[in-house]
Amino acid sequence: MRKRATNIAIASVALVATAVIIKKLLEKPLETVKSVDLNRYVGRWYEIASFPQHFQKGCKYTTATYSLNDDGSIQVKNSCIKDGEPSTAIGKATVADHTTRAKLNVQFKWPFKGKYWILELADDYSYAMVGHPNRKYLWILSRKPWLSKKTYTYLLISAMSKGFDIGNLKITAQKSND
User: Fold this and answer.
1) Which of 109, 128, 114, 158 is CA-nearest to residue 38?
2) pLDDT higher for 17 or 2?
3) How far, CA to CA in Å, does 82 sit from each of 18, 65, 146?
4) DSSP H helical ranges for the chain
């Protein structure tokens, strides 16, 4: 009986310590990458994993294609296959932080805007991790429809260290012949 009480006490202390650590992570401002070259960032990205959102329900083979507009904004074209049919949403992103260019505001339907913060970015722009400062939105993106296990694990650890609940992350089905 004494051993069980000790185990319960240890588990309780561990649970409280974990809660304190998570609270600290969530209070810490979300850091982005130091700099983004938007000319290199534009192009097609494959969604490898994301926190499921109502606007993406039923999507597979999801991609995002970014292109620069003449006014300095970025056209965002999200595409997927939903219920066996192509589905596309066109939006516009504007740079919110002109120093790093890692914080964007994205708008698909007026007047609603979302924050799109680039949290991780490969030196060669082959993968990215994007999220919202409220930590309720997260996307792992790649230039190819797959990521190596090593890179994916690195991004999971990074997301956890930034206070994201990776238990909410779902792998996105992709065609492998792209």
Assistant:
1) 128
2) 2
3) 39, 17, 20
4) 2-27, 38-41, 149-161
Report the alpha-carbon distance of residue 132 to residue 103 in Å, rounded.
Answer: 9
* CB-CB contact of 138 with 164 (8 Å): yes
Asked whether the predicted pLDDT for residue 28 surpasses 60, the reply is: yes
**Residue bearing the bigger pLDDT, 58 or 4:** 58
- Angle of CA points 62, 68, 70, to nearest 5°: 145
* Sequence-separated (6 or more) residues with CB below 8 Å from residue 166: 156, 159, 160
Nearest partner of 17 among 6, 27, 9, judged by Cα? 9
Q: For residue range 92-148, what is the model confidence (pLDDT) as tens digits?
A: 999 999 999 999 999 987 777 899 999 999 999 999 999 999 999 999 999 999 999
pTM for the whole structure: 0.83
Q: Which residues contact 95 (CB under 8 A, 6 or more apart)?
A: 38, 72, 101, 103, 104
Number of other residues whose CB lies within 10 A of the CB of residue 64 = 21
Neighbour-count burial for 143-160, b at 16+ CB within 10 Å, e otherwise = eebebeeebbebbbeebe
Would you call the peptide bond into 111 cis, given omega within 30 degrees of 0 as the criterion? Answer: yes
Please give the Cα distance from 49 to 134 (Å, whole number). 18
